[in-house]
Amino acid sequence: MAGSPAAAVGAVLKRSGQELIHHWNRLDRQEIVRSTFDGHYRRLRGVILDALDRGTSCGESNTAETCRRLLNECYSLFVFVHHPGVSPTNNAAEQALRKSVIYRKLSFGTESQTGSRTLARDPVGRGNLPPPRPTRPQPPPRCHPGPLRPPAHPSTPANRLTGL
Rounded to an integer, what distance in angstroms lies between the CA atom of residue 40 and that of residue 37? Predict the structure, then answer.
C-alpha cells in the first residue's frame, strides 16, 4: 500500500495542503503580501487539482471516489482564498463543540426528556441560560467558632442519650 498510486496521491495532497495552509498563516500574520500568497496559491491549486485528477484513475475505488467528489466540489476546497473571514480549517468549529463533546462523553448522556431538553438548550454548563438568581446574603462569619448558645443542662433528654 505504501508504494501504491493512491498512497502517492495522498502524500502529494497532504504535503500541498499543508504548504497552502502554511502560506495562508503567513499571510494572516502579515509576513507576506497578498500577491506573494496568490502566487503560492495558484501553484499549489494546480498541484492539488492534478493530484485529485490522477487519484480518480488510480485503480483503488475508495480513493478514486473521494477524488471525484473533491473535484466536483473543488471550489469549496479554496473558498477561504476568495472570501475574507473564512478560515481554511475547521478548528474554530471543533473548538466550539469541544466542551459539549467532553461533557457528553463524561456524563454518558441523559436519562429523561427534561434532561435532554436542558442539555439541548445549554450543552456546556450555564453558557446559554440566564445567570442564577442571587441568593439571600449570608451573615458574616462569626469571629469565635464556639457555640451560639450555652450547652443545655446535662439532664436534658438529648444529652443523656449522647452521654454528655
Answer: 5
The residue count of the chain comes to: 164
CA separation (Å) from 81 to 46, 60, 88? 14, 31, 8
CA distances for 117 relative to 102, 121, 131, 132, 153, angstroms: 18, 6, 18, 18, 55
CB 50 within 8 A of CB 57: no
Written as nine digits, the cell of 29 is 500574520
Q: Residue 45 contacts by C-beta under 8 Å, 6 or more apart in sequence?
A: 20, 78
Report field, pTM of the whole predicted structure over 0.70: no
pLDDT tens digits, residue range 84-129? Answer: 777 777 777 777 777 777 776 776 666 777 777 776 666 555 555 4
Which DSSP string corresponds to 29-69?
Answer: TTSS-HHHHHHHHHHHHHHHHHHHHHHTTSS-HHHHHHHHH
pLDDT (mean) for 5-31? 93
User: What gap in Å lies between CA 93 and CA 149, rounded to an integer?
Assistant: 59
pLDDT of residue 109: 66
